[in-house]
Design goal:
Layout (H helix, E strand, L loop, with lengths): L2 H6 L6 H15 L9 H16 L11 H16 L5 H27 L2 H12 L2 H6 L6 H21 L2 H17 L1 H16 L7 H35 L3 H17 L9 H31 L1 H18 L11 H19 L3 H31 L2 H11 L6 E3 L4 H7 L3 E3 L12 H16 L4 E4 H5 L6 H9 E13 L8 E12 L3
Parallel strand pairs: 1-2, 1-3
Antiparallel strand pairs: 3-5, 4-5
Helix pairs in contact: 2-5, 2-6, 3-4, 3-5, 4-5, 5-6, 5-8, 6-15, 8-9, 8-10, 9-10, 9-11, 10-11, 10-14, 11-12, 13-14, 13-15, 13-16, 14-15, 15-16
């Protein structure tokens, strides 16, 4: 029997998605992070606790991510029913669940459009995708976002096949929920989704085409209305709540610095970084198979092929040209490439015996080569929570009334210390730290010395967001930095797929003896 006939006959098709779900879930549970790998993860856990306590939706960051906070609160409350009171574990488990479910949704989406073998190969490869696996084991907004994206696409495929408005509405609701998780990703996916909805009319001619095009515009308008309604419903509490002015200010700042000033323009030097991440995630062999799969699809499924290409390119072009791009931003662009690879492997598997063996070898290579690159990293994070351990070490090596100068890690010191913290001037892309800001900081620091308060700083506090070494030079010129000791700590700045582990020193700051 052929491959499709064999696997389709297994339990009427339920065994494959169930196996994918169990495999993905067990893999992620055994690698779930011990602590909050990222500051956003800890912030999400604390916001979930706050929502449970006050029943008021708390602003996360950026666009607010309201649905992610609500889901985190649900998993936190659920974990307490089982006497698990660690909210960080609860939000980490949330990502495990949604990422595992996303693999199954991808399987059904691809199966509804192509065939079972392609869906299976695409699903299993996506499950072990290093970039996706990296965000699957700690609390983050990416996993529920991808779940609702794939769910929305699945409903839209059903709508295009059966022309049932119910599927269109469900697709709009799901994409609206995606917007409530990560509005920026939904905005980027709007163009490929609308292209997908509209492209069916290109094969129709004459008056029938005009009527079909009119109905298509009407359906797109209905779809977008549902998406907007759902998205606004979740973001509305931020717009009318007590902290609405703070939210609007932070949102404006996020858009200005995170999107406008952070975007370098098309085909900038940042694209080199994006390409290295694609090679890391797929290998060159995987990328070649993705091209082959796109070519195979172009023969009989040109509309779907073009949709996948547009889906791949738009998020890649935006995220790949940011000054501060990181690997998790490219996960959405990876999904269509896995579909292309699934098409290629499924096609090659049907050829001669030699080619069949080669296709299986390629499949195993693409699956395991990248996985074994990230596995030791995730295993180490599963065994040790480096940032909380470092914070406790700093607390043990400073006085009770000590002040720590830090940035980005503030939440960790407030939660795991707790310690009194002091901010410092930072650089943002294309902007220097002014002498005025440095002098104002120095006046605040000298005031602490006059009060007899001991002040400390770490390597991270000294050098993060100090691209031109303006702050660190200023400190070294005006103060004595006495090293207290060092301990292993991890930074999340290079992305989940990179272990950025190093010994970070702690310094006592003293006025320079002149």
């Amino acid at each position: 029997m052929k491959f499709d006939e064999n696997i389709s006959s297994l339990k009427n098709g339920f065994l494959i998605p169930l196996s994918l779900l169990l495999f993905s879930f067990i893999l992620r549970v055994t690698l779930i992070s011990k602590g909050p790998y990222h500051v956003d993860c800890l912030n999400l856990a604390l916001n979930a606790e706050e929502l449970i306590k006050t029943h008021q939706l708390t602003y996360q960051t950026g666009f607010g991510y309201p649905l992610v906070v609500i889901l985190a609160a649900f998993f936190t409350a659920l974990s307490k029913l089982y006497s698990i009171y660690d909210s960080v574990f609860a939000v980490n488990f949330m990502s495990v669940v949604f990422s595992s479910a996303s693999v199954v949704i991808l399987y059904f989406f691809v199966k509804s459009q192509l065939e079972v073998s392609t869906a299976f190969f695409s699903g299993i490869l996506f499950s072990m995708c290093p970039l996706f696996l990296g965000v699957s084991v700690y609390g983050t907004s990416h996993t529920p976002c991808i779940f609702f994206l794939l769910g929305g696409l699945y409903f839209l495929v059903n709508y295009l096949k059966k022309k049932q408005r119910c599927s269109l509405l469900l697709g709009g609701v799901s994409i609206g929920l995606m917007a409530a998780c990560r509005l920026q990703d939904m905005i980027l996916m709007t163009v490929p989704i609308l292209y997908f909805l509209m492209s069916d009319n290109k094969r129709i001619e004459g008056n029938e085409a005009q009527g079909s095009l009119f109905r298509s515009f009407g359906d797109c308008l209905l779809f977008l209305s549902v998406v907007a309604l759902v998205a606004v419903a979740f973001h509305f509490p931020y717009l009318i709540g007590e902290s609405k002015d703070i939210y609007r200010s932070q949102l404006s700042d996020f858009i200005l610095h995170g999107a406008v000033q952070n975007f370098r323009g098309l085909f900038s030097d940042s694209m080199k970084y994006a390409f290295t991440k694609l090679v890391y995630n797929f290998t060159y062999l995987g990328l070649l198979l993705a091209i082959l799969g796109a070519w195979i699809l172009s023969v009989n499924q040109v509309k779907f092929m073009r949709f996948l290409v547009v889906w791949f390119l738009i998020p890649l072009i935006f995220y790949g040209n940011l000054y501060s791009s990181v690997s998790r931003f490219f996960i959405i662009s990876c999904i269509p490439l896995y579909v292309f690879i699934g098409v290629a492997i499924s096609h090659l598997y049907r050829k001669s015996k030699v080619i069949k063996i080669v296709s299986i070898f390629c499949f195993l290579f693409i699956m395991y080569k990248p996985f074994f690159s990230i596995y030791p990293i995730l295993k180490l994070r599963h065994e040790q929570a480096f940032i909380p351990e470092y914070v406790r070490w700093v607390k043990d090596n400073t006085e009770d009334n000590a002040v720590l100068i830090t940035i980005d890690f503030n939440l960790f010191y407030s939660y795991y210390g707790p310690m009194e913290l002091m901010g410092r001037p930072i650089e943002v892309p294309l902007m220097h730290i002014t002498i005025e800001n440095l002098d104002n900081f120095r006046n605040s620091l000298d005031a602490k010395f006059h009060e007899g308060i001991p002040v400390y700083i770490t390597d991270y506090g000294l050098h993060i967001y100090d691209y031109l070494n303006e702050f660190s030079r200023y400190m070294e010129n005006n103060y004595d930095l006495i090293e207290i000791g060092s301990k292993l700590n991890e930074s999340w700045y290079r992305g989940e797929d990179t272990m950025n582990l190093s010994k970070i020193r702690l310094y006592r700051i003293l006025p320079k003896i002149r």
